[in-house]
């Protein structure tokens, strides 16, 4: 039995094991690309178990992709645990927890102030070579769907026709904790700017100085600003308590609710509800049951799983790979650095002579390797549209 805590999104703090490499030739980017290409183009595994329940393995020849923060680093966003990751560089960084956000007005001010500063960078950043390669692989007929832990909406932008399940929600909207109405984050940004003119001019200056504009995380850090994977910015000693945020317009207009705003339209602390939250699954918050089962469905309808840029540190992602393993699906992992539980995921294939048919593990960057995989598969005439 799982405890309720284990179903929540929680940071994983134990050390990760050193990366395994399999097959041995996958220790360079071209070698990894060859192994991943073999993995994707192989016949379905004879060990694939039928799925219990109602789901059917609709596409045993296709691969479901599970992506994490590592694939968005090339778009200028930090990841959590990479060499320039938020947890690696900033030991004191602590993401906001759901319970804190829902209960504490001060915590919300701090969250929204940081989010206000980080939004422009996130909003201007674009999908990168990894996302483009995923679109190509889908076009070639190798991918059944994508499950992502990322909240940056890059997958939808890069491949709108390939099904993407956003396991941890998305930053492009806010959601009301009382009435569950969603609003575009863009419009919310304008409301935040109007309510916080001093912060808005600080942001303007920061944007003008290119501190937020640069794609180079080192330069950005040198200018004292850092965008975290959840789209916010670190600003030591900022007067967060001065920040103001608006209530849900729908709840504010409902006379039956005690949701109030001050003269400027900022959420009044004596309100009961009408609080807007980013439409992401915060740490300590449970994933919606329908999202959880859709993710399981996405795993069950594919014949193999390829993890891209994730250390599987969150339980929800780790569980999906375990599910794939329990079903006898070949597992591929392309991630710089260690991955939680990788010895057990790959124990059956490590040491075998496979060229990648039964499993791949490489510690290389996806934006380097995945376009090479596409090129290889195309030149070999593999795939349905080649
Ligand atoms: Zn509402």
From TrEMBL:
It comes from the Eukaryota. The active site is at residue 168. Residues 43-380 form the Deacetylase sirtuin-type domain. It comes from Carpinus fangiana. InterPro entries: DHS-like_NAD/FAD-binding_dom, Sirtuin, Sirtuin_cat_small_dom_sf, Ssirtuin_cat_dom. Residues 211-235 are annotated as: Disordered. Keywords: Metal-binding, NAD, Transferase, Zinc. Pfam families: SIR2. One of its GO terms (molecular function) is metal ion binding. This is Deacetylase sirtuin-type domain-containing protein. Zn(2+) binds at residues 176, 179, 248, 251.
């Amino acid at each position: 039995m799982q405890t309720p805590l284990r179903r929540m999104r929680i940071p994983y703090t134990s050390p990760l094991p050193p990366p395994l490499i399999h097959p041995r030739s996958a220790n360079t980017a071209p070698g990894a690309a060859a192994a991943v290409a073999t993995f994707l183009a192989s016949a379905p595994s004879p060990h694939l178990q039928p799925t219990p329940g109602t789901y059917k393995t609709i596409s045993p020849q296709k691969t479901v992709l599970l992506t994490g923060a590592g694939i968005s680093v090339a778009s200028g966003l930090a990841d959590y645990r990479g060499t320039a990751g938020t947890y690696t560089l900033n030991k004191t960084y602590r993401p906001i927890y759901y319970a804190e956000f829902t209960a504490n007005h001060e915590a919300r001010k701090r969250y929204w102030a940081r989010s206000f500063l980080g939004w422009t960078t996130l909003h201007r950043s674009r999908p990168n070579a990894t996302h483009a390669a995923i679109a190509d692989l889908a076009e070639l007929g190798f991918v059944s769907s994508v499950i992502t832990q990322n909240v940056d909406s890059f997958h939808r932008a890069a491949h709108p026709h390939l099904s993407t399940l956003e396991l941890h929600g998305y930053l492009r909207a806010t959601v009301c904790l009382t009435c569950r109405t969603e609003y575009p984050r863009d419009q919310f940004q304008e409301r935040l700017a109007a309510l916080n003119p001093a912060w808005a001019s600080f942001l303007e200056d920061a944007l003008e100085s290119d501190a937020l504009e640069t794609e180079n995380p080192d330069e950005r850090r040198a200018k004292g600003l850092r965008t975290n994977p959840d789209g916010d910015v670190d600003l030591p000693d900022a007067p967060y308590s001065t920040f103001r945020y608006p209530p849900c317009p729908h709840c504010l207009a409902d006379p039956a609710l005690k949701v109030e705003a001050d003269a400027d339209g900022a959420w009044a602390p004596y309100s009961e509800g009408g609080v807007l939250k980013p439409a992401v699954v915060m740490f300590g918050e449970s994933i919606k049951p329908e999202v959880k089962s859709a993710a399981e469905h996405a795993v069950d309808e594919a014949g193999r799983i390829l993890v891209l840029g994730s250390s599987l540190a969150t339980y929800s992602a780790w569980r999906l790979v375990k599910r794939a393993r329990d079903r006898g699906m070949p597992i591929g992992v392309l991630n710089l650095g260690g991955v939680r539980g990788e010895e057990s995921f790959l124990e059956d294939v490590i040491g075998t002579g496979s060229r990648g048919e039964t499993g791949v593990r490489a510690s290389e960057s996806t934006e380097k390797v995945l376009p090479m995989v596409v090129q290889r598969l195309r030149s070999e005439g593999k795939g349905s549209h080649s």
